[in-house]
Amino acid sequence: LRILPATFQQCGTDEALRHMLILPGDDAFDRNEAINSPEVPIEDRYFDMWWIPIDGDVCLSYAIDITQRKRVEEQLRQNEASLVERTQQAEQRSVYIQQLAMELSKAEDRERQRLASILHDDFQQMLAYLKLQLSLLPGGGQNDDHIQVLNKEIGDCIDRCRNLSHELKPFSSS
């Protein structure tokens, strides 16, 4: 390796930076080939460096400041890592929400079954009992208009309870 002092100017300024640069391999100069050293860090900046042999040990060198590009690339890497992390979090939350939805659906189904059982097993039975008791009144309850109205209302309540029970739990047997 050949170590040469180099002077280059940043684009847009007259300020010269002097550094010791390490040039890779002597043979490229011997073959009269240009040498490129990409992404050379100098202080807090990055440069693409080129050396073009002109005559013997004399060469033309120039540097392109790629610091902004490197910063943008680093920001892109950070953004991509953040995006991957957020995507993973979103996927985890999605799975959790699906689990909650399934649990809610099961809880709703259990509650519908419970209400259907209460309607079928309790209310319908109590209403049927009342209807039977009305029919056991002296004269079978046929002579009194008021008893006939009550008997009809109880029958309607039994039908409504049965329908509601079937709506809540459609495959249950009454």
Please tell me how large the radius of gyration is. 45 Å
Low-pLDDT residue spans: 1-24
Give, in order, the helices and strands: EEHEEEHH
**Strand arrangement across the biggest beta sheet:** 3-4-5
By DSSP, the count of extended strands is: 5
Determine the N-to-C terminus distance: 96 Å
Helix content: 55-70%
Mean pLDDT: 77
Q: In terms of structural class, how would the helical and strand content be classed?
A: alpha+beta
Q: Judging from the principal axes of the Cα atoms, what is the shape?
A: rod-shaped
Total helices: the number is 3
| Sheet with most strands | 3 strands, antiparallel
β-sheet strand percentage: 15-25%
Walk me through what this model shows.
With 174 residues, the protein is an alpha+beta fold. Helices cover 56% and strands 25% of the residues. The chain has 3 helices and 5 strands. The chain has helices at residues 27-30, 67-135, 145-168; strands at 2-9, 16-23, 35-42, 45-55, 58-65. A 3-stranded antiparallel beta sheet has the order 3-4-5. Strand 4 (45-55) and strand 5 form a beta hairpin. Helix 2 runs antiparallel to helix 3. It is rod-shaped, with a radius of gyration of 45 Å. The termini are far apart. Mean pLDDT is 77; it is low at 1-24.
